[in-house]
Amino acid sequence: MKPNALLRRMSRILLSAALTCAVIAGTAHATPSTQIWIPSTDVQAFKTFHFGFDTYIRANRNDDGSRTPAIVDLGLTAGVLPFPKLQAEVGFDLIDQADPFGKYPLYFNAKVGTPEDAWFKGSPAVAVGGYNFGTKSDVTDVNIVYGLVAKTLPVVGRLSAGYYGLNQDAALATVFDANGVKGDSSGLLLSWDRTMTEISDKLWLAVDYQGGDNAYGALNFGLSWAFAKNVSVIFGYDIYNDKARGGENTYTVQLDINFP
Q1: CA 105, CA 33: separation in Å to the nearest integer?
Q2: Looking at the 3D structure of the chain, how many domains does it have?
Q3: Which CATH number covers residue 203?
Q4: What's the whole-model pTM score?
Q5: 61-93, pLDDT tens digit by residue?
Q6: For residues 187 and 151, is the Cβ–Cβ distance under 8 A?
């Protein structure tokens, strides 16, 4: 093999290994209004703000015995449209995670949506948006875009379904596995959530799923307790579709505060 060809091959192998290690070291969302992991059709009300403090702690050690540090996400989202039938929110997040992603912690998100029954009785909620719009080209610019519909059914609760796609060139997005194979650049979004009024109006349960073998594909479940009208905490667990890209499963605790 010629020296230049050998160098290119070695570079690809080293890049693959580096990207795999980086993703195992941790990934996090720059979150719009969400369920546990995936976006929801909820949109922040006009002139209101949402502060989120999310942590993700690995449930198991890595294969080499090390434990990946927790990921911390601080986010602020604001409602920006005054129309009851057409709502919008914009926000940003600061995410503390392993390098090289930790060097560029700023991410942006936005969403436009309509609530249930907005256009006619029985019409579903609809939302389109994007998140994880990072500031470093080909590294943190995952640029996930999505569409969702949701409908609340008596007794059952709210069911949501949608689809997402992401930037294939971002290192964090369709990361190579140990064999140099790229992950998926799109997948399903599914969720169920319900306020458990039979027990307490403060208790909320949810299960959601993001499809695809990439750093974001995961099955997630958890519960939330509202400590006040504008303060709640989610306790959840995240099972990643592909450990080579998503890393070890995580426990998540998410503090949500709405104001004013």
Answers
A1: 19
A2: 1
A3: 2.40.160.40
A4: 0.84
A5: 877 888 888 899 999 999 999 999 999 999 999
A6: no
